[in-house]
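TA notes. Do not distribute before section.
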Amino acid sequence: MRAVLCSSFTGPKDLRLSEIAEPKPAGDEILIDVHAASVSFMDQLVVSGLYQMRPPTPFVPGTEASGVVASVGDKVTKFRPGDRVACSSWTGGYAERMTAKESKSVRLPDGVAFEAAATVLHNYGTAYYALVERARAQRGETVFITGAAGGVGLAAVDLGRHLGLRVVAGVGSGDKAALVRDYGAGDVVNYRSEDLRDRIKSITSGDGIDIGFDNVGGAIFEQMARLMKWGGRLMPIGFTSGEIPQIPMNLPLLKNYSILGVFAGAWAEKFPEEAARGNDNLMQLLAGGQIRPHIDSVLPLEEVGDAMRAVANRTVQGRIVLKIR
């Protein structure tokens, strides 16, 4: 079968399209004929050796995909051949066939396209875990989302709107403002050209933000730590800036706010039943048109390197999807 192989942690330039043997599902896994796979910032980090886990090489990248079940392991009870599914996995998505844990797969409702389905579990799953499970967001609260036009960020804007939050979107360039407004942001802050502290104080009438959803890290997170409301929740989601922030711990002490780590993948490993229920909820929201993943472009598998470079350069709004079948 055709698959993209990563043989060294040297980034997208050394990925190669190859012919390899198809995988075989373990007892708790399903084998999927992959139709579409999404390209995330995490995928780019993994092939560049910059993520917190390194798969043994060579490996097939790709953390999220959708397709049709080809066969199932002998312990699988939820799926059967022919089911349309989306799945998440640490690796394997950029291939004609992949395996995934039963607990990390979800059946697609009728009418949900493979391309859209391949963008939900990581993006919206992270946003759901952060806003619903970790922050316990309440209708009417103010959330400030950085990297708001990216995959996870835009999902958080969309889901925040659905949850009835007041969404403030942080972007790094003015050309992204229209997209985040279209997805539900009531206010937009360009933190490259505007003073973040002044804008947040103006938007919140000096009260600060209830929920900080930060994809960027570095100096942005350090500024957010000074903009929290009493009893707020500040969540590090990722570090696309490449800088892991450090903050004085008297800041959360003075305002009694919490810093909540968000690692949705680890949560799904430790609590698979809760994560599976969250995935089912998201697919129902997708089928009902209550969330709407934004697909920047659909590319053939051969252009995976270009897709990853675009993600790394932050020129992508939403997700790039690879069309495999």
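Switch to the second chain here.
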Amino acid sequence: KALTDKEFTKLMDMFHYSSRLHRAYVLKQAFSRVLMFKDKENIQWAIDQWLSLVASSELPEFKSLLKTFKFWREEIVNALTLPYSNGFTEGCNNKIKALKRCAFGIQNFERFRNRILFINAKKGHATITSHVLPKSA
């Protein structure tokens, strides 16, 4: 989203008082340009350029970011280049955890299991009948 003239003026005023804020903003803008690339080679090149900017910025708030990119580089590049993610699975896990918090103290596991299947089935993600297993003896 582009800034309005009034917002831009306020931003420039803030930069006048804080050079660190200005450097952090420049890094944020530079990273948004990294995201414009879609192929692996260009993204790797852009990330390298951006990380060198981060290192030269001497902002202590960004030191952990350098470590993160060092250890998770391949995964970050894959997340930016591949057309799929684990977002759906994470969403299902989040729903289950929320349901688990609400159902604290309920002792009937079968009901809890069926409720999990129901909340996923109602949006067309699964069918209850295909997932319900017979009770074990």
